[in-house]
C-alpha cells in the first residue's frame, strides 16, 4: 500500500465535465472506495460501447453486476450476459475493453481461480485484485 497522497493535477478547473467525472471516479477507486457507489459512472462515448453487440453486453454486465472486491469467471460472466456457452467470447470482450479499471475487466478470472491474462500485465491485474480485496476488508470494519 502506498503512502503517497492522492491528488488531482493542476488545471483541474479547466477539465470538461466528463473528464472531471472520470477523475473523481478514479480518485475514489484508488483512494476512497466507499464513495464509488455514490458517484455517477462516467459517460462513455467509445463506438464499441454504443453499438449493439455481445461485447457491449458483456462489458455493461461486468460494470453493472460485478462489484468492487468481487471476481467472476469468464464462464460466469458469459452466463450473466445471456450466453452460457460464450466464455471465449467474454475473453475477447475483455481484450477489447476500451476503458479498463472503470469497466473492471481485471475482475474476470479463470474458473480454476487463476487470474488469467490482462492487457496491463498480469502483475497489474494481481495488484488491482489485491487492492480491491484490501480496501473491501477495510470497509467491512
TrEMBL record:
Organism: Fregetta grallaria (White-bellied storm-petrel)
Alphabetized SUPFAM superfamilies for the sequence: Methylated DNA-protein cysteine methyltransferase domain (SSF53155), Methylated DNA-protein cysteine methyltransferase, C-terminal domain (SSF46767)
Name this protein carries in UniProt: Methylated-DNA--protein-cysteine methyltransferase
Entry's Gene Ontology cellular component terms: nucleoplasm
InterPro entries: MethylDNA_cys_MeTrfase_AS, MethylDNA_cys_MeTrfase_DNA-bd, MethylDNA_cys_MeTrfase_DNAb, MGMT_N_sf, WH-like_DNA-bd_sf
Family: Belongs to the MGMT family.
Residue ranges of domain Methylated-DNA-[protein]-cysteine S-methyltransferase DNA binding in the record: 56-133
Coiled coil, from the record: none
Listed GO biological process terms: DNA repair; methylation
Entry's EC annotation: 2.1.1.63
Catalytic activity: a 6-O-methyl-2'-deoxyguanosine in DNA + L-cysteinyl-[protein] = S-methyl-L-cysteinyl-[protein] + a 2'-deoxyguanosine in DNA; a 4-O-methyl-thymidine in DNA + L-cysteinyl-[protein] = a thymidine in DNA + S-methyl-L-cysteinyl-[protein]
